Amino acid sequence: MGRPQKEIVLAGSPARLFAYWLRDLRGSAGLTLDQLARRTGYGRTTVSDAMRGEIHPTRPVTLAIVGACGGDVRRWGEYWAQVRRALDPDRPGDSPEGDGIDPPPWGARPGRATGTHAERCPPDCARDDPHGWYTESVSTRLRLDTPAPEALERRIVVATCDGLTRIPVGVSVPRRAGDTTPGHALEMSAVQGGRLEDGGPQYESYFERFLVLPAPLRAGTRHVYELRLRIPPAQPMAPHFVHVPLTRSEHFRLRIGFDPAKPPRTVWRLEGVPTAVIYQRDPGTPTLRPDEQGLVDVEFGAMRVGYGYGLSWREADTGA
Which DSSP symbol is given to 246? Predict the structure, then answer.
């Protein structure tokens, strides 16, 4: 067993305050550092350092920890950005360090009416999930035999809180290795089940929207929605498509249609892998072969928060 973490002395530091609340979230989830390391795919030292208060952890590490602990990933992402701005030595003004950084309102224990949509829950709302909803299934069909990559994604979510009116939808589109072209984009549209509106802070490779539901959902209600995701024609796509659950997600089916005239050299099945493995040129996982139509079809269940499930590949002509 490792040594317990030292007590954090806040002393007005936004980095220490951030670590304090991140540590509080871990305590609420009842996870040891070793358990948290296994769930996130990061080393024990990495997750421990994130809650030490001496440095501000990276955004991927933070969101992996929050997701593994069942926290509100969207709002923690906003809080992370707020602290980063406060720590910037070139920030405008001469406000003291930590000025304007408030404790996150989601720092309460699971089961209380706090979190993503707490402001829309009645006072006596009895939720059994810290987000007010969970994903029952995701089914994605990705076409790579078209001029530009296009995915149609069908999701079924289940409300665990009365009055659910919107759901955050986040998609990561990493740059392909070696891509230095200006601009990086994703076209996202709702096919059915609601309408999309702008979400929180946007980053170069992470795109977030809110799906506004047609009507508020009651606890236990299943809701189906579909999204269409398109990468612009001139933008190269990284050679993988992976679902990394940051909240409870029970089932994932992925079908990729490769161009049968230019099949990939190798396709790897990624099941429960740490995020770092997704980007490896040869992850060393089981390989698959497209059928005569160029289709690869895989399914996953019992998925763990913070781990990757999907496919990666190496193209025949570029070696990428």
Answer: S
